[in-house]
Amino acid sequence: MSDRSETLASRIDERFGEQLRRVSSTCGELTFEVDKDDLIEVATALRNEAEFGFEMLMDVCGVDYQGYGSHEWTTNEATGSGFSRGVERQPVILDEADEFDAKRFAVVYHLLSLQHNFRLRLRAYTGTSNPPMIRSVVDIWNGANWFEREVFDLFGILFEGHPDLRRILTDYGFIGHPFRKDFPLSGNVEVSYDADEGRVVYKPVSIEPRTLVPRVIRDDNRYSADLKDATDG
Fold first, then answer.
1. pLDDT of residue 173
2. 3-state class of 174 per DSSP?
3. Four-CA torsion 52, 56, 58, 62, nearest 10 degrees
């Protein structure tokens, strides 16, 4: 982490105190976590106050932490199960559970201060509500409009106060949110053109779910040292 970033981190700690909690970063990016109830207050201050001046929102990203830190495989060999989500069909739009784990879904905001040449990442978890919900920052950074629609489309996170929250990447009749960890790999429906009806129709997926296994290096006589030496000789 550069000295300039550490200076900014000190200013943030002094200004916001417990409202912002620093998060360690393996890639050297200055990252803070904020409670979703404090998001609007903190974001407004980061934009308006002269010592910060984060007037530009570069990106808004959704994250699904379901299964975070858990390995799909515990050995280097191929298993007979593979990715469980590849063979187990899940609820189509929203999980049937009354609530989610408090730290399953998060929204990450990438901020840029042009006047100070600072970059900052804010992360806010959506909490336990189902569907996941957080306040929109469109009134603070107007560029968040399409970013938040993308997060809604792919993760199913709702942004309270968004002026036009609808899908932006998937088709009109798409079912589910494809970046969720429990979204089936083969999807929920498939589309095709029906000549008799003269329109595109939706029907259940015809692809048979299959178990995915990792590629591993296996013993093969083509790579035998004896054969290699014989060929070279």
1. 74
2. coil
3. 70
Q: What is the sign of the dihedral through the CA atoms of 211, 212, 217 and 221? A: positive
Q: Which amino acid is at 16?
A: F
Contact status, residue 60 vs residue 109, Cβ threshold 8 Å: yes
DSSP code of residue 163: S
The predicted pLDDT at position 38 comes to 97
Q: What are phi and psi of 178, to 5 degrees?
A: -70, -15
Is residue 195 packed enough to be buried (19+ CB in 10 Å), middle (13-18) or exposed (0-12)?
Answer: exposed
Pairwise CA distance, residues 17 & 69, whole Å: 29
Q: Which residue has the tokens 């993760």?
A: 155
pLDDT at 9: 93
- Report the SS3 class of residue 19: helix
Helical segments of the chain, H only: 3-16, 39-48, 144-155, 225-232
Q: Give the pLDDT means over successive 10-residue stretches in the chain (233 positions).
A: 87 95 87 97 97 97 87 52 46 60 95 95 95 96 97 96 94 84 81 89 77 58 61 53
Q: How far apart are CA 10 and CA 175, in angstroms?
A: 45
In sequence order, the β-bridge partners of residue 133 are 158
